[in-house]
Task: inverse folding
C-alpha cells in the first residue's frame, strides 16, 4: 500500500485499460482521505479524476496519471497530472464548452471536471498530445 | 470480470451495485438487465447505488440508458440511495440524469413503482369503461 | 546576551530578598494597564505566583526560556495567556503583565544605589530573559485567540443551520442570517444528509430570516434543490418576502418548476396535500 508521508510523494499509473481508470480512482481516493479533504471534496476530486482518466484513455489513446500530495504552505492538497501523446485538442474553447463531445459521451468530461477542482491547467498541441493538471486544496 | 447480480423480488428486479465498476461491468449490467426484464416479465427495476462513492458521467449515462431501454421493455426504473456527496458532485458536474426517477431508499423506491403501476392499471380500467359504454 | 547561571542565581536571590517590594510594584504596573478590570487581590495573587515561577526557573539555572528548569514557568505563562485571552484582554495588556517585571526589578536595583557596571550587565541578561518570557506569552495568547475564533466560527455554523423534522416524511431548514458560500455548503450537506437519515422525501427551505437574496445565494439554493431531486426528494422554498421576490425577478433568476410558497405554513399544507392525494389514490 502506498504511504504518503513526504510532500513530494507521487505515484504514477499507466492508463491503458478500463481497469486502470478504476485504479486511478482508488489511488486518488486514498490520497484524498490522507490529506483530509472533506467528504464532498473527496467525491469531487475522485469524480474529476475518473472523467479525465477516461478522456486520456478514450481520446488520448492511453497515457498516464501522476497523483501527488502538494502543499502551498498554508494547506495541503492533491494534484493529478494526466498526460497522453494522442492527437491533441484542436479547438480548446470548444472542447471546454458544456455539451461538446466527439466521443459519443454527454460532453461534460472536460468542462465538468474543471468545475469540480480548484485549479485546472491544460496544455495541448495537435499531433503531440495533451497534459492536464488539476489541483484540489483542503479548506 | 466481475458481474453485478440482478435479483428478482416479486414483480421487481433489484440491482445493488456494491463494487467500483469498470466501464465494461456497467455495460454488461445494462445487457443483463434487458435480458432479465424480458425473461421474467417484471415491470419494475430498482437500482441501489447507496454503496457507490462516486457517479461519473459514464455511470450516469449507463443509468440513463438502462432507464430508457427498460421503458421500451415496459418496465419502470428507479435509482435509489444516492449519497448526498454524490448528488452535490453531479450537480456541479452538470449531470442532471434526465429521465431517471429517483428515491431515497429501496423501500420508497418500491412504493414509487407500486404507485406507477397502479396509475397505469387505473388508466387501463378507464379505457375499458369508456369502450364499454355503448354509443347512442 | 544570555543569562549565565550565576547571574540567574543572583537574580533569584534578589527576587526572594525583595519579594514584597517586587510584587507590589509589579502589581502596580499591571493594574495601571488593566484599569480595574481585575481586582488588586487577584493581580497580586497572579504576580506572586509568577514571581515564584521566575525565582524557581532562575535558581534552577535556566539561562533560556526553553531550558528544562523553566518548564514550570512556561506552564504558568501559558495559563496566564489562556485566562487573559478568555477574559477578553488585548495581546498588549497580556504581554505587559510580564514586561512589568523588568520595571519592578529595576526599581529594586536603583533603590539599592549600587548600580555599578556589573549589575547593569546582569540586568541586561535578566531583561533579555524577561523579554523572551513576554514574547512567549504573546505567542501563546495569539494561538489561543485563534483557537477560540475557530471554535466560535464552528459553533456559529452549527447553531445557525438546524434541520428540523416537521412531519412524517417532511423536514425543514429555517435559514437565518446572511448566507455565504461556506455556510450555504454546510446547509446543503446537512439538509441532504438529514433526508437520507430520516428517509424524508420532502424538504422545506424557509428563507424568512434571510435579509437579502443575491445571485449567489439563489444559485446555492437552486443547487440544493437539484441535488435533493437527484436523490429522490422534493424541495419547497417558503418565506419569500415581497422585496426578495422583486429582487429575484429583477436579477432574472429562474426558479423554474421549483415550488415556492409565501409562508412555512403554506409550504407544509402543500406537502401534506401532495402526500394526501397519493394516499387517496391507493
Result:
Amino acid at each position: 500500500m502506498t504511504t504518503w508521508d513526504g510532500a513530494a510523494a507521487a505515484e504514477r499509473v499507466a492508463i491503458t485499460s478500463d481497469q486502470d481508470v478504476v485504479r486511478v480512482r482508488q489511488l486518488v481516493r486514498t490520497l484524498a482521505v490522507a490529506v483530509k479533504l472533506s467528504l464532498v471534496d473527496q467525491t469531487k476530486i475522485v469524480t474529476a479524476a475518473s472523467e479525465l482518466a477516461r478522456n486520456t484513455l478514450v481520446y488520448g489513446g492511453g497515457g498516464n496519471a501522476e497523483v501527488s500530495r502538494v502543499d502551498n504552505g498554508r494547506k495541503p492538497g492533491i494534484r493529478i497530472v494526466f498526460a497522453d501523446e494522442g492527437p491533441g485538442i484542436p479547438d480548446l474553447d470548444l472542447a471546454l464548452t458544456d455539451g461538446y463531445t466527439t466521443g459519443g459521451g454527454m460532453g461534460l468530461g472536460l468542462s465538468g471536471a474543471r468545475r469540480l477542482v480548484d485549479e485546472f491547467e491544460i496544455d495541448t498541441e495537435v499531433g503531440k498530445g495533451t497534459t492536464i493538471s488539476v489541483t484540489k486544496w483542503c479548506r | 470480470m466481475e458481474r453485478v447480480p440482478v435479483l428478482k423480488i416479486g414483480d421487481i428486479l433489484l440491482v445493488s451495485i456494491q463494487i467500483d465498476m469498470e466501464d465494461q461491468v456497467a455495460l454488461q449490467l445494462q445487457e443483463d438487465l434487458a435480458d432479465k426484464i424480458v425473461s421474467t416479465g417484471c415491470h419494475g427495476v430498482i437500482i441501489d447505488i447507496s454503496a457507490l462513492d462516486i457517479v461519473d458521467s459514464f455511470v450516469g449515462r449507463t443509468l440513463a440508458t438502462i432507464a430508457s431501454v427498460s421503458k421500451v421493455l415496459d418496465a419502470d426504473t428507479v435509482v435509489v440511495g444516492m449519497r448526498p456527496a454524490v448528488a452535490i458532485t453531479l450537480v456541479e458536474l452538470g449531470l442532471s440524469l434526465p429521465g431517471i426517477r429517483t428515491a431515497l431508499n429501496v423501500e420508497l423506491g418500491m412504493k414509487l413503482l407500486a404507485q406507477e403501476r397502479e396509475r397505469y392499471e387505473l388508466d387501463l380500467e378507464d379505457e375499458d369503461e369508456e369502450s364499454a359504454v355503448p354509443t347512442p | 546576551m544570555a543569562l549565565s547561571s550565576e547571574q540567574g542565581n543572583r537574580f533569584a536571590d534578589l527576587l526572594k530578598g525583595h519579594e514584597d517590594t517586587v510584587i507590589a510594584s509589579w502589581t502596580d504596573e499591571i493594574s495601571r494597564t488593566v484599569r480595574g478590570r481585575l481586582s488588586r487581590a487577584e493581580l497580586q495573587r497572579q504576580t506572586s505566583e509568577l514571581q515564584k515561577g521566575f525565582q524557581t526557573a532562575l535558581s534552577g539555572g535556566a539561562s533560556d526560556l526553553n531550558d528544562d528548569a523553566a518548564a514550570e514557568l512556561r506552564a504558568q505563562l501559558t495559563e496566564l495567556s489562556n485566562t487573559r485571552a478568555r477574559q477578553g484582554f488585548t495581546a498588549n495588556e497580556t504581554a505587559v503583565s510580564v514586561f512589568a517585571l523588568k520595571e519592578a526589578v529595576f526599581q529594586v536595583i536603583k533603590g539599592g544605589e549600587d548600580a555599578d557596571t556589573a549589575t547593569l550587565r546582569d540586568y541586561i541578561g535578566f531583561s533579555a530573559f524577561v523579554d523572551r518570557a513576554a514574547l512567549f506569552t504573546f505567542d501563546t495568547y495569539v494561538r489561543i485567540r485563534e483557537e477560540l475564533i475557530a471554535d466560535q466560527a464552528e459553533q456559529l455554523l452549527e447553531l445557525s443551520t438546524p434541520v428540523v423534522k416537521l412531519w412524517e416524511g417532511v423536514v425543514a431548514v429555517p435559514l437565518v442570517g446572511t448566507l455565504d458560500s461556506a455556510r450555504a455548503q454546510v446547509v446543503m450537506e446537512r439538509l441532504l444528509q438529514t433526508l437520507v437519515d430520516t428517509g424524508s422525501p420532502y424538504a422545506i427551505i424557509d428563507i424568512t430570516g434571510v435579509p437579502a437574496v443575491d445571485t449567489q445565494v439563489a444559485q446555492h439554493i437552486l443547487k440544493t434543490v437539484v441535488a435533493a431531486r437527484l436523490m429522490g426528494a422534493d424541495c419547497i422554498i417558503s418565506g419569500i418576502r415581497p422585496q426578495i421576490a422583486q429582487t429575484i425577478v429583477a436579477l432574472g433568476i429562474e426558479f423554474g418548476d421549483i415550488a415556492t410558497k409565501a409562508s412555512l405554513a403554506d409550504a407544509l399544507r402543500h406537502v401534506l396535500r401532495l402526500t394526501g392525494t397519493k394516499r387517496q389514490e391507493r
Observations:
- Residues 96 and 132 of chain A are 12 Å apart (CA to CA).
- Residues 39-58 of chain A form the longest helix (20 residues).
- The first strand of chain A starts at residue 10 and ends at 15.
- Chain A touches chain C at residues 40, 139 (CB under 8 Å).
